[in-house]
Please model this.
Amino acid sequence: MSEIAERPPEALSHGAAEHKHKDVLGAKMGMWIFLLTELLLFAGLFLVYAVYRYQHTAGFHRGGMETHTMFGTVNTMILLTSSLTMVLAIGAIQRGKKWLSVTFLSSTIGFGLAFLIVKGFEWSIEIRKGIYPGSPSLLKKSNGEILFFGLYYTMTGLHALHVFAGMIILTFMLVFILRNKITKDDYVKLENAGLYWHLVDIIWIFLFPLFYLIN
Amino acid sequence: MAEIAIEPGGLGASPNGASHNYLENTGKHKGILAWILSTDHKRIGILYMISIFTFFAVGVSLGFLMRLEMLVPGPQGKIFDAQQYNALFTLHGVIMMFMFVIPGIPATLGNFFLPIQIGAKDVAFPRINLLSWYLYVTGAIIVLCSLFWRGLPDTGWTFYVPYSIRTATNVTLAVFGVFVLGFSSILTGLNFLTTIHRMRAPGMSWFRMPLFVWALYANGWIQVIATPVLAITLLLIAIERVFHVGIFNPALGGDPVLYQHLFWIYSHPAVYIMILPPMGVVSEIVATFSHRTIFGYKMVAMSSLAIAFIGYLVWGHHMFVAGETQTAQFVFSLLTFLVAIPSGIKVFNWVATMYKGSIDLQPPFLFLMAFIILFSIGGLTGLILGSLATDVHLTGTYFVVGHFHYIIFGGGVFIFFGALHYWLPKMFGRMYNKKVANWALGILFVGFNMLYFPMLLLGYEGMPRRYFTYLPKYELLQHISMVGSWVLITGLIIMFWNLIRGIFKGEKCGANPWGGTTLEWSIPSIPPTENFEHVPVVTHEPYYHPEAEPGFVAEPVPVAK
Model:
């Protein structure tokens, strides 16, 4: 940020009144600050996870044995690939290839949908086993396991909500590209949407080992 | 309203009077739509002002009822039963905290004056600015809905577990409302930060920004960094209540003290969200009415950031008796005392600014004097609570209530009122009756001390907070406090009546009634829609008073009084 802060006054003199073009840096800055707040939202949950894992090590260990690493791995691959197609969609619009960008963006949304479907299967298997918050068979288990699965549903659920929100945002971006509101010369909206999508991806990268790999 | 008082040399004044002021409708919408669909930061500031003071009135009424409850000591002959009293203090707290003081100055006067003070036409994201007002209104309505549906929440504004997950009252809706209000707060902070980074006028370097802007900058960071933690904490309460997840429920292995940690990780910085913007206003008022540049400008600016930073690390002092290790107690107590350093820097620099200044005792400055007295009492009682030994005796008593109101009401809100007296003439181009304003302040000051000083004494003698009854030996002080609430409310009514009357019927005051030096005083009163006719170029520090320089030869400067 320092180069913004220390711009000489002359650089600004074209400012406000005359110029009409967008402040791309400002828009991105706003987005980064927003991403910071999203990170802190999840940070609260990670803190809770850390404290309870420390207090109930054995229960968390048993909980980790029961989650389906297979589903988690598939979903990790899906999300990572979706981040790739997201980047490619931005790259395409930068080179002015509208339809290529549309294709990549649609596949990103498709991967998001695939992620939610896999998640849905995974949750329904757990629920059929009787593991869901407040269920009789979960309440019979140790406190550590109750907390583990409580956090499992809360954290992956909140994350899934973010994936869903990301898909809605990306759908809007798709419409903008089709209507030529996002073009080669003005694609900061798409970039910001991409940043959001990557954030959702990164949070999953941390959720994956915490719930599927450590056991 | 149509004609604009044009001051010679006014930067924004158009020579032919062609520019419209922001109160005139020039957009495509008419009537109320021209306001609630406007993305003009000035109109949004006023929307906020109307809604915030509406809820302030509700909060004051609830506080008045709580004092009235103390008419008689015993459980017999009470106006409200225990459950109703629990609901009263919960709603009073939730409304005053989340709907009044936290949005408070930034959302109203900050929205209005931040862009003008840095020479910008608007905030960085005008539509997000409007969205945050809608979120505010939505959140407030959701909280109010909890009043009428399945029982008033009765947990206190802190929503402590395990009670908040057990009580049958409608806590879920209330915490969801606060969650939405938090989102509104985050967006305002985000908007201000980006605006300050990106929209400053040519020549407005970081150290030429008015100190109110610096305070809003520090405040924006706290809003952005702290509020998400509250959001997730309250969300967890809602999830806990709806799905019985067990995260904070000790019966399922959860840890209620962890909730307190998470809650105060936000809510202590929130105290600085409430007090930093008023401190910024104090710097403006001190400089303007002392007719001097502020003493130690950079230190005052940096101390805002220091308060924001240290304030993030002291939350544990709310939990000295909640089962912390002694190490944690010691560290949090030490860090708490450290906040006194940047606060002290501010106070000493304000006083040094007044020294040998040419002080003009106008109403805003008198509010500032009241602030200094009340805030000092609040600060000193804070030291008593920050010390481990005394805190164990005083925690959970009226002493805490008294201390808190001295800081937030006597400190923050008195300056909010002072800021209204300072800036409303600029916003509406008309001056209130200054004599009435001074009288209102006097009544407020007396009423305030009658209301809250007995609370300090009551707490010292052991009167617990949140009780709807009290022992007969507390009767005298309780009654003084109750009468104080009536005096205070009388003062409030006179003050608001005077201000509102001033907005509509006051004398025209011209562009610069106080002799202020920051950019907002260079544009006409009733600022133009576009703020500045031409982009201002800033060539000197914000509080530059050439007449205070040695060897200055006075020129006739037109100042409307």
Notes: Residues 1-17 of chain B have pLDDT under 50 and may be disordered.
